[in-house]
Amino acid sequence: MPAKYQDSVFLNVPFDTTYARLFDALVFAVHDCGFVARSALEIDDSGQARVQKILDIIEQSKYGIHDISRAGIDRQTGLARFNMPLELGFFLGAMRYGTNKHRQKRCLVLDRERYRYRNFCSDIAGQDIRAHANNPRDAIRAIRDWLSTHRAAVQMPGGKAMFDRYERFRAQLKVQAKYLQLEVDELTFGDYTKLVVGWLTKNPW
Amino acid sequence: MTKRTIKSAAGESRVSLHDATSAARVVYRDGTTGRFVILERDLAGRIRGRASAADSVKGTFRERKDSAASHSGSLRGSSKKK
After folding, report:
1. Which chain A residue is nearest to residue B3, measuring alpha carbons?
2. CA angle B8, A17, A65 (to 5 degrees)
3. Entry pTM
4. HSE on the CB side for A124, CA within 13 Å?
5. How many other C-beta atoms lie within 10 A of the C-beta of residue A65?
6. Would you give per-residue pLDDT tens digits along chain A (205 residues)?
């Protein structure tokens, strides 16, 4: 069953290995808050242009989480990494020019430090911007606090409790994956989210 | 106040939700040591299930072996007779 618009959270984040521990934490937090994590990684279709894939997911998602913490200079190429700000621009454009449904979109911008964006992307001032300090604990707390404002009727555990749940999930992930003949470092986005949802089902709040 | 419902994952995977849930372990933090303790009860149950299934297979082999032995015995018996 496809994810509902009002439950879908588009994750606009870098896909490099150094970001993986933050990405895993974000996916967990989104699902533990009762939403569905959406990413360009969810479809393994090389025939579909990447930008089309991203635009489709933005169209299907009411919420967007945009991490611009890696939007600096790439060490290998010496060039700026523009993908995250570009996709944030798509999302803001959908909010501005889309139909009534898309005007209700909400987005959260994450960065290492709360006001760093002023030095390189100051036009996003006025958006909801939170800092994660490259730390899964702070990232989970930021996601939880932001998403809880969009599920006011739901009694969610606090950021600390949710991070404790994440640590418990990670403690057993290798065993859980092994049981399905999978290796943790080989998990695809689809595999990982399934394991997250499986664990959450077995470990309610 | 209501509690949230867990939504299905969006990504493509051959792992079913049922299998992912079956494979998931209950984990708690030991109050004394602060370490995580993974409860293996479900896994142990599965292993027991597999072991019993393996036993039944072995039993089948044993039965076949027995029947083969009795068969060969009868051949030996017949050769002895010769």
Report:
1. A154
2. 50
3. 0.83
4. 30
5. 28
6. 789 999 999 999 999 889 999 999 999 999 999 999 999 998 777 767 889 999 999 999 999 999 999 887 888 888 888 899 999 999 999 999 999 999 999 999 999 998 888 888 888 888 899 999 999 999 999 999 999 999 988 999 999 999 999 999 999 999 999 999 999 999 999 999 999 999 999 999 8
What CATH number is given for A5-156 in this structure?
3.40.50.10140
* Chain A residues with beta carbon closer than 8 angstroms to that of B16: 194
Vertex A48: Cα angle to A104 and A109 (nearest 5): 35
Does B13 contact A at CB distance below 8 Å? yes
Q: Which helix (H) or strand (E) holds A26?
A: helix A20-32
Q: Which tokens belong to B18?
A: 């049922």
Give the chain A residue whose CA is nearest to the CA of B4.
A34
Q: Locate the chain B residue with the closest alpha carbon to A156.
A: B3
B74 or A171, which is more confident? Answer: A171
Residues of A in contact with B2 (CB under 8 A): 153-155
Contact A110, A65 (CB under 8 A): yes
Task: Report residue B65: phi and psi, to 5°.
Answer: -60, -45
Tell me the two tokens of residue A12: 């606009």
Q: How far is B58 from chain A (nearest CA, A)?
A: 23
Of B3, B8, B11, the CB nearest to A1: B8
CB of A63 within 8 Å of a chain B CB? The answer is no
Restricting to A residues 92-151, those with a Cβ less than 8 Å away from any Cβ of B are 151
**Closest CA of chain B from A136, distance in Å:** 18
Interface pTM, i.e. ipTM:
0.86
